[in-house]
Design goal:
Number of domains: 2
Distance between the termini: 21 Å
Radius of gyration: 23 Å
Largest sheet: 6 strands, mixed
CATH superfamily of the largest domain: Zn peptidases
Bound molecules: zinc ion
Strand order of the largest sheet: 1-2-6-3-7-17
Strand content: 15-25%
CATH class of the largest domain: Alpha Beta
CATH topology of the largest domain: Aminopeptidase
CATH architecture of the largest domain: 3-Layer(aba) Sandwich
Length: 420
């Protein structure tokens, strides 16, 4: 009989049509979040697992947002590998902006088209096949594999991965996590920044535009506040040495800029401040009495949420008429797993040996993924997926070649991790 790894490679290469067909079927299902109803997509995944003879159960704290957990123990003791992907997608927005039906699942120009094709139907489908293929080899592999296919990722994960890691930890925490969110083939994400949101309310007496000497404008006070909040961007992070050394490498910096655009290598390692909304004033010829600002801070590895909370409080205290509240974003620090972890090696080696021949570099993600829930509980988690270009935009589409590369890389890395 052929060696297990060769059989795995045979399925990866021999079942391309079935792999693409499942990706297209998933993309034809509208799982827009909000509202985040993923039941039809979960049914599709269930049918696929049933075809493969794999067992699963549903954990649904919100009935319309089911999470599927499929686990199997292999031959004898070993490591517990967890695979994590989500079913919900961003809403398509104005359908007129699309050149096709946003949920067409069309195959054209070597790409599958539709909302969610990139984020992250492609990645979730890749993990479904990786799981199915490992399941076929279960009598020949050591350890355990658990697939978690979740809902509610795009709106915070409380009813998805957040719920599973908190309530079903024995089942889903495992020893290591693979996730296929779009990262770009040139990177493996071993960590990600933290998100901290505040609402500032600035109030003044108001009055007539022509009489500024009678009272301050809340909008002008808000502008001064913003200028001071932006000074937090220059705060130096206290990076753990393994993170600093990984991100300092010139080839890593080049991969970051190639994957995320010029300037990304610097943004990755500092706080960024975005005033997402400003609501102030009633009329052009009045001194505004009130201005409300919603401000999004993204914190790099090495700057804690409490440090930024402290700076925000101290800056707000120096400005008259300002009060503020923190908005709920969960409470997870910027998080990282060891960039020298064995799994990074498996991903890098298998990606580099694939037909695309791209060697990914370990980086920190600018945005968030569900992997933070595992890292927050001390479980190493790594993200490698297709190019993020076009995700969440009109005419989202994913390259079949990239999809296949991601599927192959994860299936082989998972196999190598279990058998190492
Ligand atoms: Zn995603």
């Amino acid at each position: 009989m052929t060696a297990p790894r060769d059989r795995l490679l045979g399925w990866i290469e021999g079942e391309r049509e079935r792999q693409v067909a499942l990706l297209r079927s998933l993309t034809r299902i509208d799982t827009s979040n909000p509202p985040g109803d993923t039941r039809a997509a979960a049914d599709l995944v269930s049918r696929f697992l049933a075809e493969e003879g794999a067992s699963w159960r549903t954990e649904a704290p919100r009935p319309e947002m089911p999470n599927l957990v499929s686990t199997f123990a292999s031959r004898g003791a070993g490591r517990h590998l967890v695979l994590n992907g989500h079913l919900d997608v961003f809403p398509p927005g104005d359908p007129a902006a699309w050149s096709r039906d946003p949920f067409s699942g069309d195959l054209a120009d070597g790409r599958v088209h539709g909302r969610g094709a990139v984020d992250m139907n492609c990645g979730t489908t890749a993990l479904l096949f990786a799981h199915a293929y490992l399941h076929r080899l279960r009598n020949e592999l050591p350890g355990r594999v658990t697939l978690t296919v979740v809902s509610d990722e795009e709106t915070g994960g409380r009813w998805g991965s957040g719920w599973l890691t908190e309530r079903c930890g024995d089942e889903v925490l495992g020893d290591c996590v693979l996730n296929t969110e779009p990262s770009g083939l040139g990177t493996v994400r071993f960590g990600e920044k933290s998100m901290l949101w505040f609402r500032f309310t600035v109030e003044g007496p108001g009055g007539h535009s022509a009489y500024p000497h009678t009272g301050a404008s809340a909008n002008r006070l808000a502008a001064h506040l913003v200028r001071d909040l932006e000074t937090i961007e220059s705060k130096a992070p206290d990076e753990p040495s393994v993170v600093r050394e990984a991100l300092d490498r010139p080839e890593v910096r080049a991969a970051i800029e190639a994957s995320l655009g010029a300037g990304a290598a610097e943004v990755m390692r500092r706080v960024s401040v975005n005033v997402g909304t400003v609501h102030g004033g009633v009329s052009i010829n009045m001194l505004p009495a009130k201005c409300v600002l919603d401000v999004d801070f993204r914190l790099p590895v090495g700057i804690s949420r409490d440090e930024v909370r402290g700076e925000v409080a101290s800056i707000a205290g120096r400005h008259e008429g300002v009060r503020f509240e923190e908005l709920d974003t969960g409470d997870i620090e910027a998080n990282w797993s060891d960039p020298g972890h064995e799994m990074v090696g498996h991903l890098v080696r298998n990606a580099g040996a694939g037909p695309r021949g791209v060697t990914p570099r370990p980086v920190v993600g600018l945005g968030g993924t569900d992997t933070r829930f595992w890292r927050a509980r001390g479980v190493p988690a790594f993200v490698h997926g297709c190019s993020p270009a076009g995700m969440g935009a009109a005419d989202e589409s994913v390259s079949i070649e990239e999809f296949h590369h991601v599927l192959r890389t994860h299936a082989l890395a998972a196999f190598d991790y279990l058998t190492a």
